[in-house]
Structures are given as structure tokens and as C-alpha cells.
């Protein structure tokens, strides 16, 4: 039956379709009733009304619950699509509510929070911007998942060369910086005195990896032909250099945090790979809002300043 709009009423009730979706998921009227917080008779009545609207039986009662008829299966597919659209609508409303108060939820990896994001916050403060940031620490893969689910407004990620990330037509990508990559070794390591190293030269080493970026670091190692032995996954900024200096393992370090790798006990060697790319990603619609637009501008200004400082150190 084709749904017809008569004033503001559909022939098939969207609400009852969602109840049918829950019945199909839970396998019985009583289980669906518990999940929805209604009585079993109330759910049964909703299903009888939906069957009357559809003009066909949708459920077959069994001793173990209910099962769908052919017509029921057809309607559940549409009900699932309605549930997905409503979920996305709730996420959009939540995002707009946050932006209405000029609050932006930003997900980024640890090194970015300590550098680009910190300077972006200072820029917003210095320019008297009313935007306020809610910060979440997340590796690139996790941040993109959050963005897709509506859990954040802006995701700041990095891409190693050759790494494939999910891309959505509704997303806009704003490139922030190119970030050179090094390996931190104990000063006594056999490779500490050599020049540029290949990632594959470190295939047999034990690694200290950022806890939120394990998936991403393992991925780039797989691209180099090996699976790293992970000795510790941590986001403690003090643990990595101390453990490397003690000979516990090696670690990937980028330009962003070179200054945090102290002392003569740690050797930094450039890796023979192009710089990784740091980018901010947001929904196309949200970019047009003042809060997200101001946040992206602050991130670009901060990244440009940090890149200029890094280039000056490299040539100095």
C-alpha cells in the first residue's frame, strides 16, 4: 500500500512502524514492551492498528513469541530506515543546540591537543571569540567514528602516507599542516648513529605507542611490511621518552612534540617517509555555522604558527 499524506496524517503510522521495528528486534511483544517502557497489551494494540492500516497481517503468534509475515518483513525494512533517519535527526538537533550556545565539541589526538588545539584556544581568547570548546581525546579512527555518529562537531586527524580513511560526501576536510615523522631510539641503540631510517628497519623492535593511536600506528607498520610488537600503549606524555631512554622500546615522534623528547639519552632519527598530513574534518552544514567556522579558522592560524616555528628550528 502506498502511503498518502492527508493533511498531516500518514496512512501508515510512523510511530507504529517503529514499534514494529522493536518487536522484530526483540522477537516478542512482551520483550519489545519492556524495552519501550509500555505494557504488553498496549504494544499488541499498536500492532493490531498497524495491521489494519497496512491491510495485511504482519505478525504470526507462536509459543515462543512472534515472527514476521512476508508483509511484516517488507515493512520492517522501511521501519529500520525511519529509525536511522530519526537517529540522525536527533544528532543534528544536538549539534545545533551546542552551536546555538557557541560550544563546539572537538576530538583530536593527544599531541594535537598539546600543540595546535592549545594555541587555537589562545587565539580564540585573544580575539575575544565567544566560542567555547569541549575537548575529547581520540585517535584519528576513533575521531572519525565520533564525527559520523554525531559525537563531535570537528575531528582533527592525521594521515600517514598511503593511509586510507573513510570519506563522506557530507564532510569537508581542511588541511592544517604537514608533520614530519621521526623515530625515538635509546641513545645506545645500534641505529642511533645512522642517518634516515626506514620503518622496516625497526620491524624487530618493541614499540611504545600512543594509546589512542594504536590502530593507526599498527596500520602504517603493516604498510611497511610488519606487525609491531607493542610493549606499551599509553598517552602519558612523560612515559614515552623515559621508557625509550631506558631501552624499553622505540616510538614514533612527529614535529609536533619534538620538544617534549628530552635529553641525551634519546636519539631522534628521521624516517624515510613523506610527512603525515594533519587535517580538521567537519560536516559541510556545520562549517557554515559561526561557532564551527571560527573553530576551524583558529585551528588554521594555530597550525600555521606551529609550522613556522618548526621550519625555523629545522633551518636554524
Summarize the structure.
With 316 residues, the protein is of the alpha/beta class. It has helices spanning 14-26, 29-36, 40-54, 70-100, 110-126, 140-149, 214-223, 239-245, 284-287, 290-315, and strands at residues 5-6, 9-10, 59-62, 65-68, 103-108, 132-137, 154-159, 171-179, 181-186, 206-209, 229-233, 251-254, 266-270, 276-283.
Shape: elongated
CATH fold-type name of the largest domain: D-Maltodextrin-Binding Protein, domain 2
* Helical content (DSSP H or I, runs of 4+): 40-55%
CATH architecture of the largest domain: 3-Layer(aba) Sandwich
Q: Major sheet: order of its strands?
A: 6-5-7-14-8
Radius of gyration: 26 Å
Q: What CATH first level of the largest domain would be assigned?
A: Alpha Beta
Query: SSE order, as H and E?
Result: EEHHHEEHEHEHEEEEHEHEEEHH
Distance between the termini: 75 Å
Q: How would you classify the helix and strand content by structural class?
A: alpha/beta
Main beta-sheet annotation: 5 strands, mixed
The whole-number mean of residue pLDDT values reads 86
How many distinct beta strands? 14
Amino acid at each position: 500500500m502506498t502511503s498518502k499524506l492527508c493533511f498531516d496524517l500518514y496512512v501508515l503510522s510512523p510511530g507504529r512502524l517503529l514499534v514494529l521495528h522493536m518487536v522484530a528486534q526483540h522477537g516478542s511483544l512482551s520483550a519489545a514492551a519492556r524495552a519501550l517502557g509500555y505494557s504488553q497489551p498496549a504494544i499488541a494494540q499498536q500492532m493490531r492498528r498497524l495491521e489494519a492500516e497496512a491491510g495485511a497481517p504482519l505478525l504470526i503468534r507462536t509459543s515462543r513469541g512472534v515472527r514476521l509475515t512476508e508483509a511484516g518483513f517488507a515493512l520492517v525494512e522501511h521501519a529500520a530506515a525511519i529509525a536511522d533517519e530519526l537517529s540522525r535527526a536527533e544528532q543534528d538537533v544536538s549539534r545545533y543546540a551546542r552551536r546555538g550556545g557557541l560550544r563546539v565539541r572537538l576530538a583530536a589526538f593527544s599531541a594535537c591537543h598539546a600543540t595546535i588545539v592549545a594555541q587555537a584556544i589562545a587565539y580564540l581568547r585573544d580575539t575575544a571569540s565567544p566560542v567555547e570548546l569541549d575537548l575529547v581525546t581520540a585517535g584519528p579512527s576513533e575521531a572519525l567514528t565520533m564525527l559520523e555518529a554525531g559525537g563531535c562537531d570537528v575531528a582533527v586527524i592525521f594521515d600517514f602516507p598511503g593511509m586510507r580513511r573513510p570519506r563522506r560526501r557530507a564532510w569537508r576536510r581542511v588541511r592544517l599542516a604537514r608533520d614530519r615523522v621521526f623515530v625515538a631510539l635509546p641513545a645506545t641503540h645500534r641505529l642511533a648513529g645512522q642517518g634516515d631510517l626506514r620503518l622496516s628497519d625497526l620491524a624487530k623492535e618493541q614499540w611504545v605507542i600512543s594509546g589512542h593511536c594504536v590502530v593507526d600506528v599498527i596500520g602504517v607498520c603493516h604498510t611497511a611490511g610488519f606487525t609491531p610488537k607493542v610493549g606499551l600503549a599509553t598517552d602519558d606524555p612523560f612515559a614515552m621518552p623515559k621508557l625509550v631512554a631506558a631501552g624499553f622500546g622505540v616510538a614514533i615522534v612527529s614535529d609536533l612534540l619534538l620538544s617534549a623528547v628530552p635529553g641525551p639519552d634519546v636519539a631522534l632519527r628521521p624516517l624515510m617517509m613523506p610527512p603525515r598530513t594533519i587535517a580538521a574534518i567537519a560536516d559541510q552544514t556545520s562549517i557554515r555555522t559561526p561557532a564551527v567556522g571560527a573553530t576551524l579558522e583558529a585551528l588554521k592560524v594555530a597550525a600555521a604558527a606551529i609550522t613556522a616555528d618548526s621550519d625555523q628550528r629545522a633551518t636554524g
